[in-house]
Amino acid sequence: MPVITTIDDLKRLHERRVPRMFYDYAESGSWTEQTFRENTTDFEQIRLRQRVAVDMSGRSTKTQMIGQDVAMPVALAPVGLTGMQHADGEIKAARAAEAFGVPFTLSTMSINSIEDVAEATTKPFWFQLYTMRDEDYVARLIQRAKDAKCSALVITLDLQILGQRHKDLKNGLSAPPKLTAKTLANLATKWSWGIGMMGAKRRSFGNIVGHVHGVDDTANLGAWTAEQFDPTLDWGKIAKLKEQWGGKVILKGILDADDARMALKVGADAIIVSNHGGRQLDGAISSIRALPSILEAVGDQIEVHLDSGIRSGQDVLKAMAMGAKGTYIGRAFIYGLGAMGQAGVTSALEVIHKELDLSMALCGETSVAGLGKHNLLIPKGFEGDWQP
Ligand SMILES: Cc1cc2nc3c(=O)[nH]c(=O)nc-3n(C[C@H](O)[C@H](O)[C@H](O)COP(=O)(O)O)c2cc1C
Ligand SMILES: O=C(O)C(=O)c1ccccc1
């Protein structure tokens, strides 16, 4: 077993072990990838305040997200096609999250189905919803998530149409995913991935294929999304979905204070400040830069979470100290999954937990609740003086 001490170690192994088509799909941002890059470089702009001679014994990273206990404020973000990174990837990731004590969010676009994951775990997980044109299908999907006892519905709002990712088009990534001649050639060097996949429970969209008609035979992810997703989704429809669900609702993909106010108005329990990991609107600001103005607008009335660009426990610390009440990792756990399956996801969580715990101690903090702006050195003008 290789010694893993950083998320980057897992990323290198992921690249080595997973066919290029799926590695590229995970790693890509849209268009020039400016937003994708700035999601991580903007975290680097913020510095941590080192404090000394503070009793650091009895530290804890435990806290709550939407009223649920978490071992640290880091959930697994919904990631489509997770089961193509590793056989039964959603089951593996959900089990790793459950054992660690952090929430797992299952994507609508997952390979393992809601029922597969419910069967393989003992605690409730969260379900992420994409709304399709077929409203009956959406209603059935919500019912399936209820039947599986999912404890939150995460409705993603920043992807009713897909941002263009060049590599996916060049690699011929289709939806539902199919192996092309190019990928099969690439497979020759990815034996363990291929052998695993042969034994996988599923190799196509588990929540969709067999549950809705006319979904196969599409050239690429963008064309498929344009055909299937509901382009008319608006705040009125979001309010109706919330009513249909009846439980906790998290609205994902908020990057603007005005939208955060709308989310508050429809009665969401939490929002996720997110630009979808730089995969949607290239040129949008990083989520860590968007966070302060959103907190100012709604932070005292709704739980504000953040994702996009988190690669370390220091990043988690920075987001929490700025005022977020929770964070999510997307690629960071996908690297682990592609590298080593369930053990790799556990490893990603351990890396981030250790970084968070040690950095809290070196900042002179012993609890998540104690974190605040006093832990940060934020450069003047960090939020940008761009005018809407
Ligand atoms: C490969 C990949 C697939 C994704 N699929 C979904 C999805 O199905 N639903 C969704 O709401 N977000 C999806 N996202 C966005 C993630 O939930 C999350 O917002 C993003 O990964 C956070 O950025 P990070 O990867 O820098 O942590 C996806 C992200 C990646 C990298
Ligand atoms: O790739 C993504 O980011 C994503 O969310 C998605 C959208 C449509 C189909 C599969 C994944």
TrEMBL record:
Needed co-factor(s): FMN
Tree of life domain: Bacteria
EC number, as in UniProt: 1.1.-.-
Keywords attached to this entry: Flavoprotein, FMN, Oxidoreductase
Entry binding sites for FMN: 78-80, 107, 128, 130, 156, 252, 274, 307-311, 330-331
Residues annotated as binding glyoxylate: 25, 165, 276, 279
Residue stretches spanning the membrane: none
Residue intervals of the FMN hydroxy acid dehydrogenase domain: 1-381
Enzyme class: oxidoreductase
GO molecular function annotation: FMN binding; oxidoreductase activity, acting on CH-OH group of donors
Keyword tRNA processing among UniProt keywords: no
GO cellular component labels: plasma membrane
InterPro entries: Aldolase_TIM, Alpha-hydoxy_acid_DH_FMN, FMN-dep_DH, FMN_HAD, FMN_hydac_DH_AS
Family, similarity comment: Belongs to the FMN-dependent alpha-hydroxy acid dehydrogenase family.
Entry protein name: L-lactate dehydrogenase
Organism: Sulfitobacter pontiacus
Gene from which this protein is expressed: lldD
